[in-house]
Amino acid sequence: MTMTHRIEGWVRALLLIALTISLVPPRAFAAPPQGAPETYIVQPGDTLFAIATRYRTTVAAIKQLNKLGESDLIQVGQRLLIPASDALMTPTLYIVQPDDTLHRIALRYGTSVRALAQLNDLANPNMIAPGQALAIPPNADVVKPGLLIEPPTAQQGGTVLIRVAQPDSVSVTGTFNGKPLTFIPGTGYSYALVGISRCAKTGPALLAVTWTDSFGASSVETATVTIEATAFVVQKLKLPTGKGALLDSALQTREAAQLAALVTKLTPTRFWSGAWRQPLYGPISSAFGTRRSYNGGPVGVCGHEGTDFDVDANTPIYAPARGRVVFAGATQVRGNMTVIDHGVGVFSAYYHQAAIDVQVGQMVEPGMLIGKVGTTGLSTGPHLHWSVFVNGEYVDPLEWTRRVMP
Predict the structure, then answer these.
(1) 3-class SS at 296?
(2) What are the extents of the domains in the chain?
(3) What pLDDT digit, counting tens, does each position of 54-77 carry?
(4) Choosing a second label site near 325 at 20 to 30 A (CA), which of 2, 67, 176, 388?
């Protein structure tokens, strides 16, 4: 074999080796984590669903990270790893509503049934239940250009979420039934929350939205939101001796005005994230909107301002969502009261407490102790009265535990 042939052989061998190497798939290296999981300590009343909703993740993701298998059981004090949101890349969480189907949700968000089923580990895409949390794929068109009203038909005491998505909009303004709305910038959209009074007039309510683009041109869109009546029950209460004086109309009006001055202010920052937890868990003795008669008197036109939980005195009360305390003190009618500003016109209040464990100006986190149950003020026995306000209107607090807003 000549030297030329040897060189040609070596070249062919080197080329063959190079070709073989090029055909071997590169070694798979795991991408560096985009965010370390957060540790959460399970609090009284927590469920996997509530925790997943609060942290904008899914029950399936928490189970997988914590190796929980098929069990949904968790214990108070248990440490759970919460997936980092940037690792999940699921910026939006949707709570399944009655009559929803996976196909309808996929159409709404510009994604596919298969993508939803895979992301949420759904063994049977036909089996979803109201209240279930679903993660929306990150490439979905979460808010389609235009106007989105949730729900389009509102209940007395409900909360309406209005979202406006226009590519070139610089500012958004609007009115609902003639009252001005404040729109908050979101990710690719602006949103406003409307509290529907528990004694609002039923029928059509006009929504008018104006958005202005970067060239100063304005566009107006109107829509009608139907307000439906809520069937509030009537409750007859007998007050303990000496508490009847608290029904004095002048006293009631004065204290209501003082509270209204607190809850009609607007902090432009939204402090909370995800669905709220309940401040405590126990039997409900008086639902939101219940129309009351005291000591045989006339039934009130507007019903109960909040939800009453029938629990023992000194039961701990926990913050349902992140916010800043704006009032913590004694009142005559509502007793020892705490009011928390959750931002963008949303407030919560806690009446009749035996003890208050927070101070004005303090930031509270979900699950933080804020007080203890008592029977101060206009109260027939130990219980917690929990109110939620949206732009100064009382709304059903429990709706905020079932929906993600915005």
Answers:
(1) coil
(2) 38-135, 146-228, 234-401
(3) 676 777 778 888 888 777 788 888
(4) 176
